[in-house]
Amino acid sequence: MSDTLADNKTPPGPSDGLAVLESRRSAAETYGIPLAVLLEITHRCPLQCPYCSNPVELDRGSTELTTGEWKKVLSELAELGVLQIHFSGGEPTARKDIVELVQHASDVGLYSNLITSAVLLTKDKLAALADAGLSHVQISFQGNEPAVADRVAGLKDAHRKKLEVAKWTRELEMPLTVNAVMHRQNLHQLPDIIQMAVDLDADRLEVANVQYYGWALKNRAALMPTIAQIEETSRIVEEAQARLKGTLAIDYVVPDYYALRPKKCMGGWGRQFFNISPAGKVLPCHAAESITGLEFESVRSNHSIAWIWQNSEAFNRYRGTGWMPEPCKSCEFREVDYGGCRCQAFALTGDAGNTDPACALSPRHEEIFKQAERESAASQNRFLYRNFAGGTLETEESRDNRQDNRNGA
Amino acid sequence: MASRNISVSETSRPKLPRHAKLKFDETRQVWVILAPERVLAPDEIAVEVLQLCDGVRSVADMVDMLAEKYAAPREAIAIDVVAMLQDLADKGFLTEARESTA
């Protein structure tokens, strides 16, 4: 998943008669309700990707919001003016009520996207989702062939299944996005992944370099690409973007470890994005619960979602520029990147209120990123697989037998 | 799926594909196009033209209606409308009604 779910990254053309709504809102500097909201309806997932964006402390199945509670959330979001919903997870189709939830989203006027690993979908289930009003399917791919892809996913036969579901998606006339999360151990497959997206008749490809918090931070030594790989990746993406214009849109998320400026994470804390966790916490970012010391309000509390968005302490703590320390405070880029990523600042410096070390102006930048560079050049390739048990280290046997410890229901 | 690479002409009968929804956003009081992971705000003219795109009406019919409504030269309207629809089609927000085989 990219951190740009809520925005439109394509700038409007000069004569296309379209203006991007988001650009108006940013200029207005208001904290209007986001256009799109990410619902992580479960953390259960048959895959065990070592870079999973879910927190290391996963919500158990027993804590998940009920069907009735999610329906209430959907109704409330529609009433607030949210226009789009991203059903995500974990694996959203691990919930038996996914069709019912998509139908309810349609009933209250929300546009639905499904962000899925695809491995649990049958053709009938996908058709039922389409009938319920699902408008777009995004499928994650871990490589372009089973040997690499199934090992990263920690699940046999996952890749073949994904290809099958991608074909059904297009047969059902739904637009398809291929999401490819890239790292040292699969970047060599990028040209083939691009071709795979073309062959699958995808509308859009997200080439997303791993962002290193949570599970991915634990696996950094096994995932961090080399600088040479990143340079080659940028070249490949630019060439493909030009060559495939009009056929396949390619969005590219660069790894901020090798950048000089941090990313404008989530468009700025509490400015245009929130997500709701399986247990109902309203969060400024899907990794926000990794920041200890922040209290996040739940939809199960007696506060409305609108109140939580506008007034809760967690959302206001890092909103705008008032919280910033130096070097951010007097930096000319403070409203360009909003100090980068709070979760990354916390994970790498122990204080979410520090400048994101991805920024070259951070006093910790040099030390942290030299270490990452050393890791990229070493050959520690063993994964710590994501699961409810706190992770399982890859073994030689586990490459052949990955059926255990996958579900945490 | 209907072709995403349509060429708009006066004989085209365009319509919005299933995944692009034109809707009035009551909260923000603007028309929006909802598309995969995107929200766009078409301007007034685009909204007016898009509302005419029902898969039955031809572009020529739309141009006639607009030329009459705005008392503007048909030729100029045609150029603008075709260019705008082509642009929307290139972005994937417009498709062509399938030819009836009946």
From TrEMBL, chain A:
Binding site for [4Fe-4S] cluster: C45, C49, C52
One Gene Ontology biological process: pyrroloquinoline quinone biosynthetic process
Domain Radical SAM core: 31-243
Cofactor(s) recorded in Swiss-Prot or TrEMBL: [4Fe-4S] cluster
Source organism superkingdom: Bacteria
Keyword DNA repair: no
Co-factor binding comment: Binds 1 [4Fe-4S] cluster. The cluster is coordinated with 3 cysteines and an exchangeable S-adenosyl-L-methionine.
This enzyme's EC code(s): 1.21.98.4
Gene Ontology molecular function: 4 iron, 4 sulfur cluster binding; cyclase activity; iron ion binding; oxidoreductase activity; S-adenosyl-L-methionine binding; transferase activity
Xref: PROSITE patterns: MOAA_NIFB_PQQE, RADICAL_SAM
Chemical reaction(s) catalysed: [PQQ precursor protein] + S-adenosyl-L-methionine = E-Y cross-linked-[PQQ precursor protein] + 5'-deoxyadenosine + L-methionine + H(+)
Keywords: 4Fe-4S, Iron, Iron-sulfur, Metal-binding, Oxidoreductase, PQQ biosynthesis, S-adenosyl-L-methionine, Transferase
Range of residues in the leader sequence: none
Pathway the protein acts in: Cofactor biosynthesis; pyrroloquinoline quinone biosynthesis
Subunit organization: Interacts with PqqD. The interaction is necessary for activity of PqqE.
HAMAP family (alphabetical): PqqE
Annotated family: Belongs to the radical SAM superfamily. PqqE family.
Main function: Catalyzes the cross-linking of a glutamate residue and a tyrosine residue in the PqqA protein as part of the biosynthesis of pyrroloquinoline quinone (PQQ).
PANTHER family: PQQA PEPTIDE CYCLASE, RADICAL SAM DOMAIN PROTEIN
Name assigned to this protein: PqqA peptide cyclase
Naturally occurring in which organism (per UniProt): Bradyrhizobium ivorense
TrEMBL record, chain B:
Annotated metabolic or biological route of this protein: Cofactor biosynthesis; pyrroloquinoline quinone biosynthesis
Key words, A-Z: PQQ biosynthesis
GO biological process terms held by the UniProt record: pyrroloquinoline quinone biosynthetic process
Gene Ontology molecular function, alphabetical: quinone binding
Function: Functions as a PqqA binding protein and presents PqqA to PqqE, in the pyrroloquinoline quinone (PQQ) biosynthetic pathway.
HAMAP family for the chain: PQQ_syn_PqqD
Similarity-based family: Belongs to the PqqD family.
Subunit details: Monomer. Interacts with PqqE.
Name the record gives this protein: PqqA binding protein
Species, as recorded: Bradyrhizobium ivorense
Gene that encodes it: pqqD
